[in-house]
Amino acid sequence: MTALETRALTIGYRRRRGDIVLARDLDLQLQRGSLVGILGANGIGKSTLLRTLAGMQAPLAGQALLDGEDAAKLLPRDLARRLSIVLTAAPQASLLNGYALVALGRYPHSDWLGRLNKADHAQVAWALQAVGAQDLAERRVSQLSDGQRQKLMIARALAQDCPLMLLDEPTAFLDYPRRLETLRLLRRLTREADRAILVCTHELELALRYCDEIWLMSEHGLQVGSPATILRDGLLSAAFGIEDINFADFARGRYSLDTPLLQTGGLS
Amino acid sequence: MLRLAQIPLLGTWGGREYAGAKPWLLVALALLLCLLLMMSLALGSAAIPLEQIFQALLGGEAESAAWTNIVLKFRLPKTVTAMLAGMALGVSGLLMQTYFRNPLAEPFVLGVSSGASLGVALVVLGAGGAGGLLLGGLSLAGDLLLTAAAGLGAAVTMSLVLLVAARIANGLTLLILGLMFGYLVAALVSLLLYFALPERIQAYINWTFGSFSGVTSAQLPILAAIVTAGLLLAAAQVKALNALLLSEDYARSLGVPMRKTRLGIVLATALLVSAVTAFCGPIAFIGIAVPHICRGLLGSADHRLLLPGTILAGACVALAAGLIAELPGSNLVLPLNVVTALLGAPVVMLVVLRRAQGLA
């Protein structure tokens, strides 16, 4: 089932002296049950694409359709029932416990006071269990590590119960094992919870390993392909503008620089 | 442990999201408020027996007509004013701290009280003949004029802030604009002070001390109506305020209509602060300290607990400050702002220190 579809979507910023276009005429599709990674160099427009899809920023032209409806025309509450987000920095909501943080995801489903009913509690408990954070439920958010907080934010997005989840560099502040764990978790959630998940990341290796599809953004536009295609066609080198980037190990998706570290005289 | 399921308005099944919170302290705060209300009515320069006070309050006549007069004309308006002002300042502080996600934000950051100060300064210090005539001493007409000037100043600022808030989609920008507006107005007031006559300066400074005793029974309904409207508007934002604990972006993604919510928060704050400032002067520290006291007491950041909490605690703190300012047993009356600062500043310091140690 298609959770997200774009039609001739052009993204960028409106400026008085002329619009800054970051990507033009995008026709993209995202199915439930699949994990898609957006890769690209800094400043190429990954976050802008994500923000536009999330309705946080207006497109310059074209449409983003969520379950067939134009995202720009949806009411805030209806939009919140179709897509949930996880941002780079997990908020420092001190004094809230983990359970209350995840329960905020029920916002678009609850009454004017945000009271939770039995179904809401069931959804929150399921989300906590799905990310493996049951033990964080009654702990203060301010006492948790970045990784634990981000895990709760993913649970919160799950509890929002939307077909589509968008994540903007969710692993940027995490250590390597936590990054691996996060990508693996996202892949598992697409399968077990039938979600469509779009994650924007700088983790080339992890993204190539765990994503079903890669949207590679570069100056040449946006290229869609399976990780294998992206690897085989040498598209990454072109996208990141480094001549000597190489994939030493195709099968494992590992990349390396052609020039050995020692000969360059350091890490500069 | 008292579970929230027993309180209909907050009720949830189980309520694990409240684990660690102490909602029963709301009941304790309500009891404390009752006690302080009685003390505020009972204590004063004239010693009146408690049963006589009740008699006067319940519509009967106390043994002495002077007693009835003191209770109904002085202590009752003063007590109700203090209660309303405390509620208003506490809640507006909570709104500002949550909206700006800044523990040091307070109602005055929007520049509303600066606007009120400018209104008062223009009337008191301005060279206008009418203002000078009316302000011979502290006549009733002079008081009314001050209230009107402060109200007008606050209302003008409020409209400006609302206009800006409707256009600017960023809390931080609004915060900085409000602060800068405050500095601008402070400079204008300084300029007026610089050229003003000494007795006019005294009248302006008296206003800045703050007082709960300046509101007459006739003015009280106006204050009560505005504060009630502000509190109801604040209550309508409770759910959105909880979502705003994350961030504006997250709140929007949860379906919070941000433009409507921002206007609701700013309008509620402006109503509450401008009414209190117009009638009682710029009262410092209640707005900043009370929300922190409540978070600490209730052990929760959930606005379904914090809003009733700040309403109750705000009223308690204001009544206590009013009582202390009158120094029961003496004929001295201290400036209200001296007391609120002496009570409030240590609380804020404690909060900042606890936060630095990671305990908050």
What does this structure look like?
The complex is a heterodimer of chains A (268) and B (360). Chain A has a six-stranded mixed beta sheet with strand order 7-8-9-4-10-11, with helices on both faces. In chain A, strands 1, 2, 3, 5 and 6 form a five-stranded antiparallel beta sheet that branches. In chain A, strands 12-13 form a two-stranded antiparallel sheet. Chain A has helices at residues 46-53, 76-80, 98-103, 118-130, 146-159, 176-192, 204-210, 227-232, 235-240; strands at residues 2-13, 20-26, 29-31, 35-40, 61-66, 69-70, 83-86, 164-168, 196-200, 213-218, 221-225, 245-249, 254-257. Chain A is built from nine helices and 13 strands. Chain A has 268 residues and is of the alpha/beta class. With 360 residues, chain B is mostly helical. Chain B has one domain: ABC transporter involved in vitamin B12 uptake, BtuC (Orthogonal Bundle). Helices cover 71% and strands 0% of the residues of chain B. In chain B, helix 13 packs across helix 15. Chain B is globular. Chain B starts with 24 loop residues before the first helix and ends with a helix. The chains are: A alpha/beta (268), B mainly alpha (360). The A-B interface holds A 54-56, 75-81, 83-85, 87, 91, 93-97, 99-100, 103-105, 107-108, 110, 112-118, 121, 137-138, 140, 142, 160 and B 9-14, 16-20, 236, 238-239, 242-243, 245-247, 249-250, 252-258, 295, 299-302, 304, 358, 360.
> Which segments of chain B are poorly predicted (pLDDT under 50) over 5 or more consecutive residues?
1-8, 129-138
CATH superfamily of chain B: ABC transporter involved in vitamin B12 uptake, BtuC
Shape estimate of chain A: globular
Task: Provide the low-confidence segments of chain A as ranges.
Answer: none
Count of alpha/pi helices of chain A: 9
Counted beta strands of chain B: 0
Sketch the topology of chain A as an H/E string, one letter per element: EEEEHEEHEHHHEHEHEEHHEE
* Major sheet: arrangement of strands of chain A: 7-8-9-4-10-11
